[in-house]
Amino acid sequence: MKTMDGNSAVAHVSYAFTDVAAIYPITPSSVMADESDKYAAAQIEKREMQYLYNDSDIYYFMDNETYEQLPLNKEQLGDSLKFLKENMNVKILSYKGNVFSVEPPMFVELEVTYTEPGFAGNTTTTSGKPATLENGYEISVPMFINIGDVIRIDTRTGEYMERV
Hints:
The chain is an all-beta fold. About 0% of the residues lie in helices and about 45% in strands. It has one helix spanning about 75, and strands spanning about 15-20, 30-35, 45-55, 60-65, 70-75, 90-95, 100-105, 105-115, 130-135, 140, 150-155, 160-164. It has a five-stranded antiparallel β-sheet with strand order 5-4-3-6-7.
């Protein structure tokens, strides 16, 4: 490792700057790493699991291979909580046994449980109205969507894609 003071025996060596202040509050806030420095690759474990149910703020997932259950809280689920539906398969990512991400499928199909009525003939998608889905998530949908309709949502953007 080399420091920011510029002292180096070889002037033509390229350096990579890594801002570590956001991750670890240490001084100095920037560290220069020589490109020849070696770092061990992080061992990220990715497991396919099925969302079973929730009990208050705890959400239970089952490993599809071992049938072991894994409880996660809302903070661990993050934005993926908006798209969860019972019996849905998701990918659970962990590092050293600590879950840091839950990836739902790229597209999910959820039923609209409440929205204001649309009117016949309105098939434009330029304007929208709020709708509540079966899992409680609220989304903007086109005016022609009604209660009971099943819609497809892109989980990367959280936006309505189409009526199924």
